[in-house]
Every structure is written in C-alpha cells, then in structure tokens.
Amino acid sequence: MRDVARSVEPVPLPAATLRDVGREWTRIGCIGFGGPPAHIALLRRLCVERHGWLRPQEFEDAIAATNLLPGPGSTQLAILCAWRAAGVRGALIGGAGFVLPGLIAILLLSVVFLAAAPPTWIRGAGAGAGAAVAAVAVHAGAGLLKPGWGRVRGARRGRWIAYVLAGLVAAATVGPWLVAVLLGSGLAELAWRRRHRPGGSGFALAVNGWPLFATAAAATGGLGALAWVAFKVGALAYGGGFVIIPLMQGDAVDQYHWMTDGQFLNAVALGQVTPGPVVHTVAAVGYAAAGIGGGLLAAAVAFAPSFTFILIGADRFDRLRMNTGVRAFLDGAGPAAIGAIVGSALPLTLALSEGWQYVLLGFAAVALFALRRGVVFTLVAAGAIGAGLALAGTALPVS
To answer: How much is the pTM?
Structure first.
C-alpha cells in the first residue's frame, strides 16, 4: 500500500533558473504580437509543454485567478507563471522581461509618430492606422460579448444587459467618468446579491476607495494627473485591455489636452502593433504629456498594480476565487467594461476628420469581421494605405 501511495504522489516540478526566466520571458515580450490569446498560448507552450514548470491544471488555475483581477490580464499571467517557476525574484525578472520590449518599442515609435512635425508619410501612416482603431474596438468588444452572455443564466441576464448598456453609454458620452460607472456596476451587483445576506465585502469597499485617493492627485494636474490616468488603466480596468481607451481618451484629449484626437488614435494603434500588452498605450499618452520621463512614469504606475497583486496575493488566489463578494463585484464591473469597449468606438469615430479615413474605417471593419484578418495586419495595412495616400498628396488631418 505504501508503494501505491507513493506512486500517486505528484512528481516534483523542475525549477526554472533566473537566467531561464530572464531569457524566455523577454523572448515572449519581443514576439508577443496579437494580444492576450497569443500571450496565453506562448506562456502555456513555454511553462507547461516545453519545460514542465507548471502542471496543466495549475496553468488553467492561473488564468482563472488573473481573470478575477483588474488590469492587464496577460501581464499578470506572465508574472504569476514566473513566480510559480522561480519565486519572487523570478516574478520580478519575468514581469520586466515581458513588459520592457514593448515599452521600449512604443516609446521609440512615439518619438516619431507624436513629434510636432513628423514627415508627411509618417503623418499619413498614423492617420491611416488611426482610422481603423474604431473598428478594432468594436471587434474587441464583440469578441467578449458572446462568451460573456453565455456565462449568465436566468434573471441575471437582465442585469448583465443593463451593465453592458451602462458602460456603452458612459464610454460614448462621459468618458472621464467611466471609472465611476465600472465601480458602480460592480457595487450594484454586489448589493443585489447581498440584499438578503448580512454583512458586506471588504473587497468592494477597498476598490471603491481607490479612486477617492487617486482623484486628489489628479486635481493637482501635471504629473499627478498623469499618474491618476495611468492608475485607472493599471488598477481599475476590468474586462480586457481595450477598456483602457475610454478610460484615457477624455482625460488625454479633452481634459488635460496632452494630445489631439488624431494623436490619441495614433497612440492606440501603436499599442496594438507593438508586442506585449495593449496597456503599453499608456506610455504613448505619458510621452505626449511629459516626454520620455512621462512615458516611463505612466508605464511604471500602470504596471505596478499587476506586480503588487501577484507578489502579495499569489498564494491566496485560491481563496480569492472562492470569495462570493469578489465574484459578484466582477460580475457587474466586467459586463460594464465590455460595453465600454464597444461604446468607445463612437468618440474614436468622431475623432476622424478626413473623408478617406471613414473609407479606411470601412475597410478595417470588412477585414476584421468579414475576412477575419488579425488586428495587427489590419492596422499595418491601413497605415500603409494612409502613407501612400499622403505621398500622393491627399489631405491629412490637422495635428
């Protein structure tokens, strides 16, 4: 019997060296085009199939745990996998390796595309890629609507629709206040489920307190405002990376005037065509606000919550997944975030100023929905067309 007992004990997993983590996570950071699905596939191939640093079930649990957290999910998954493979130092090294290549790339591209007087073909490429961004937003939101709807049943479907519509309307009309709608939707769902239960959730109270603290910094303007915008992106974004667009656009363009509508469209496009998480877009916004230093500050603030969540809470994720208060809050905030992603298409479309950009927007919609082309292909193709039109003398948006 002892021999049988020993035979079913889990085989100890091999440990990754810090050099392994630095090399492999940086490689993924360099080739990780295509957003979270591509990042998940690359991490699974590395950690489960090639090296066995995580068991298949552990990897699936890691995905489930990071889906409960606000902020960039694929970044958190990369940090969590590195933590499981090589401990705290592995998490720091792996997370940096995953984030830095795309961050460097987007800052270098920001210097070119967000310059005061870029070459004509660069302006055309930016205007072309920017024209496709609204279609990319609808594509991203539509990809989340069907699975989100499939997870809800019965009476919950009515509330789910209400949260989606609340996020959609808020993103289309009152972008800077979207974070309040996301939090309000989460708290409304939590209150609904607890209406017959005594007590409350400390999680919800803690989340509700974050913007109160950060708004004080935003009121000062300057770097405080930039830090608040980056904080919203990194700590209060539910439902996927694209929700950062409505969280940032109103602040960056209308409230603080760091960039024009056209430049914001360029920044979103750059975040899509560079490797790594789309949250890198915040670095382009930071660059527009305060140069390279602003880009680095925005990135540091946006990614700090992801590292904090994993380093402090990774060994408690099993309990987090079982917490009914957490689940209820996210069941309200998540649908609102999906609606916000779709709703962001309206202000993104209104930011276009030339007739040919609307034609390119239609081209992008056909490429994404009918031809099922990838986001990176669509943006690069739209940018190439825009560059050609610019060189041919077509009118360009005023910067």
So the answer is: 0.83
